[in-house]
Each structure stands twice: as structure tokens, then as C-alpha cells.
Amino acid sequence: MAASYSWLKLYYEIIDDPKMGRLPDKLWRRVIECFLLAGKNGNCGTLPDICAMAWALRTDEQSLEADLSQIAKFGILDKPNGHWHVVNFEKRQAATPDAERMLQMRGRKRYEAVTGRNAEEEVEERRGREEEEVEVDATTAAFREVIKVFENEIGTVTATTADDIKDALKDYSSEWIIAALKESARANARNWKYALAILKRWNIDGFQSKNKSNGSKGNGSKPQTAHDIVMARIKELEAQGGK
């Protein structure tokens, strides 16, 4: 029976298969060559005769026969009726039922190979993957931009601060966060908590708004500076259990 495809299924589980794992490198390669020759020869797993195999693999018949005999000890090949045969080849290469194939498709990760799927399924998954990648790239770019500004304006970014910035990007745009970091630097309050307090104030009063209570306190004290206002807000948040 002629081969129906120009490819064959090679399962990821081979990596963890103890039979394959115990093979020397030379025989590991020989097994893959046997799979390819079996697929080229048909779908039933029967290999070509030893003479044809030796020619195809550019080796001599005696060495090849010895290799196949060694592989047979691991249960990967057998020789019924005097012809070498790949065990379970026909079963492993059979077409996957539609329901199972759909489940496998949904479970694949984004970098897994596309094998045996129709064009419509492949296009649909590629489209979803591209949309996901655009979203991830945009988020990553914003995070990197904020980190760069933080290092320039504030100082070293710790792992904790990096996590806090990632969380903040869920609530505030990178433009806001960068502006808050620069405002912190101008106020000589170079820390994330100060910048976060600015963001929370802007969220209430408007982007880059000035606190309306800025001015005389009415008790003879000096007018509050932007630094005083933000520090007071920090203390309020800490008293409330906020960050």
C-alpha cells in the first residue's frame, strides 16, 4: 500500500519513552529512519527489504541487520514472516477522530507544531495566537518603558517593586506612571510609594492635577508644598492599610 502522506506522526512522548531513552544515539537515529522508511513504504509499518533499506540509509546490509536486531530487543521492531516491521505503526499513524483532534488542538500550546489539521483550523488558531502576541507585546513594552524611567529617575528596581509596577499597569496607563515617577523625582521623593500616592490622587482629582487644598492652612503655618500633600496622603493610606 503506497504512502498517503509526505509526513508521519512523531509523538512528543518519545522523549520520555524508556524504550527509546535506553537506546544508544546511533540506534535512536536508526529508529527514526525506520519510522520514515515505514511511512514511505505504506501505512502498515512493514519496512522495505534489507537490501533496499541498506541502500536508502547508505550502509551495508550486515551492519543494518545487526542494528535492527538490537532495536528489536527493545520492542520497537519485530520480524513476523521474515520481514522487519515497526510495532504499532499502523495504529500510531491512523487518522485521529474529529472529536479527539479538536480537543488536542485546543490543548496545544502556542509554540507546538501544526500537524494534521485542516487549513481553516490552522488559520483560526494562528489568528488567535497573533492577537494574544500583540496584547502581550504591548503590555511588555509598557512595562519595560516604565522600568527604564524608574531606573533613570528613582533608582534600582527590586523584584517587589517590579511586581508592584505590573499591578499598577492594570489600573493606570504607562503615561500616568511615568509622569508620577518624574513628579516624585522632582519632589526629591525617590520611591515607589510616593509615586503610587500621586497616581491615586490623580485618579480622584484628574491627571496631573494639583491638590485643591494647597495654600494656607488658616492657622498661620506655611502653605503646603506638593511634597507635603503627597506625604500626608501616604500617611493616610498607610493608616487605612493601603500601600
**Low-confidence residue ranges:** 110-116, 212-224
Average predicted confidence as pLDDT:
78
| Principal-axes shape call | rod-shaped
Distance between the termini: 71 Å
Radius of gyration from the CA trace?
A: 33 Å
Strand order within the widest beta sheet: 1-2
Helix proportion range: 55-70%
**Count of DSSP H/I helices:** 11
Structural domain tally: 2
Q: How many β strands by DSSP?
A: 2
The main sheet comes to: 2 strands, antiparallel
What's this model, at a glance?
The chain is mainly alpha-helical and 243 residues long. The protein contains eleven helices and two strands.
Question: Main traits of this protein?
Answer:
243 residues; mainly alpha; Arc Repressor Mutant, subunit A; two-stranded antiparallel sheet; 11 helices; 59% helix; 2% strand
What does this molecule look like?
The structure is a single chain. The chain is mainly alpha-helical and 243 residues long. The protein folds into two domains: 12-93, Winged helix-like DNA-binding domain superfamily/Winged helix DNA-binding domain (Arc Repressor Mutant, subunit A, Orthogonal Bundle), CATH 1.10.10; 122-239, no CATH class. Helices cover 59% and strands 2% of the residues. It has helices at 18-21, 25-41, 50-56, 61-72, 89-93, 98-107, 119-153, 159-171, 174-186, 192-205, 226-239, and strands at residues 77-78, 85-86. A two-stranded antiparallel sheet has the order 1-2. Strand 1 and strand 2 (85-86) form a beta hairpin. The chain is rod-shaped and about 90 Å long. The N and C termini lie far apart (71 Å). Residues 110-116 and 212-224 have low confidence and may be disordered.
